[in-house]
Amino acid sequence: MVTNFLQKYQLQNHQLILPKKQFITYALYALVALAFLHYLLFYPALASGKSVVVAQVQEEVAAVVSARVDAPEQLLPLPPPPSPNQGDKALGNRQGRALGFPEEVPAPPPCDYSDGEWAPEARPPLYNGTSCGTIKDGQNCMAHGRPDTGYLYWRWRPRGCDLPAFSPEAFLRWLRNKHLAFVGDSLARNQAESLLCLLASRSPPELAYRDGEENRFRRFVFREFNATVSVFWSPFLVKVAEKAEHAGVRHNNVFLDAFDERWMSQLGALDVAVLSVGHWFLIPGVYHDGGRVVACHDCADLNHTETDFFGVFRDAIHRTLAEVTRRHSDGAGKKKVVALTTFSPAHFEGDWDKTGACPKKRPYRAGEKGLGYTESEMRKTVVEAVRSGADAAGAGSGLRFAALDVTALANLRPDGHPGPYMNKDPFGGGGAGDRRVQNDCVHWCMPGPVDTFNEILLQTVLR
Ligand SMILES: *[C@@H]1O[C@H](CO)[C@@H](O)[C@H](O)[C@H]1NC(C)=O
Ligand SMILES: *[C@@H]1O[C@H](CO)[C@@H](O)[C@H](O)[C@H]1NC(C)=O
Ligand SMILES: *[C@@H]1O[C@H](CO)[C@@H](O)[C@H](O)[C@H]1NC(C)=O
């Protein structure tokens, strides 16, 4: 069936002329999406053993994943254990910078965060699996028994500039009397929950509102600062009728010409919107525009022409930014930052449901692990949309678009995913063996590399 799938693609996608390697990456994503992202993105709360994915599909994924074994990879050595002095010094320096800022924070200079390397860091994260109460179960690697801790001691060092450590104080002061919202899929939620934990290390948030299954809509308030952080579920940004496996609907029906008012209607009240989507475009979808089906991804069972998802992704992003700009200029024109987090790569290395699906314990070195074709295209789409959105909005409009360009730095962190620790004590105290176990190699452990996304967010809002 894998072969059929590939043939179908080659036959039906005449425009899609890709070199073989790129094509394999593309097909891999399509299949991982089919069999697992699917599962992971939809049923994160199911207990293990209730897998909705049939064994045959698992085998297909395994076949394609193993076809994509990359060149031998070197890993960074683990950082030396911090000596107490060293630790203090690092702590002093970084905290000094964080806490000793003047009332008026000077705007940091522009920085290209997409080029850099992970460097050892002695300072521990600002929170841990027990100190923060809002970590989603599936991402609480510490509480779920992940034994290694080396993945916590790295910081991103951009090549041409400095990325200061996260300062909860600076962020909360900036957010005083403001409202920041995350809008998107489960990676948006992952980043939102990281920010909540980082800020909670300074001031406790209160849950002010909650709605929807899986806490899809939430609002938190940091009373001391009257600072609001909300989370909106909107995996395509535009309107969608989500698939319902139980009712036999395995495709999302996405409406490119209709906006998702669940968050769009709140725009006027927001000072910052962080949009983060991408992975849901890789799973089966039918795309509508003007009452017609214009695209269909993973459509073997429907009477529509199969297309890729890059075009509709670009379309959804561009239309969303254009609509944000339109509503901004119609409204009171409250100053606003709209930041888009670029695609966050997954790191499956073998069978997704076996021990060791993302087993690495250290980051890759700079330049050692190139970006896959899909990741690179998804990132580029966002970066270009931000650039053209900014041109269209114009300076002086009070509306600023920015890309949180995390794709490259996230690509170098195969060690940062929950893997089997998406479930508590996955090996039940016994040895790992080669038994079947669910692995999350898409989302990020908390604390973990996703905290760096918010270090960049802080620099972005201050700018
Ligand atoms: C987590 O952080 C709290 C508060 O800082 C601390 O008391 C606790 O020892 C930490 N736990 C771990 C496992 O590091
Ligand atoms: C609190 O913050 C909200 C924005 O989230 C703002 O509209 C409101 O005016 C603020 N309250 C005060 C007392 O400043
Ligand atoms: C599929 O679509 C074509 C063209 O619209 C139509 O002629 C054909 O009857 C359809 N087949 C099925 C099985 O619906």
Automatic annotation (TrEMBL):
Record keyword Translocase present: no
InterPro entries: TBL, TBL_C, TBL_N
Annotated TM spans: 23-46
Coiled-coil blocks: none
Domain Trichome birefringence-like C-terminal: residue ranges: 163-459
Cellular component GO terms held in the UniProt record: Golgi apparatus; Golgi membrane
Pfam families: PC-Esterase, PMR5N
Gene Ontology terms, MF aspect: O-acetyltransferase activity; xylan O-acetyltransferase activity
Trichome birefringence-like N-terminal domain span: 110-162
Region annotation (Disordered) ranges: 74-94
Membrane topology field: Single-pass type II membrane protein
Subcellular location: Golgi apparatus membrane
Keywords: Golgi apparatus, Membrane, Signal-anchor, Transferase, Transmembrane, Transmembrane helix
Protein family membership: Belongs to the PC-esterase family. TBL subfamily.
The protein's name in its UniProt record: Uncharacterized protein
Source organism: Setaria italica (Foxtail millet)
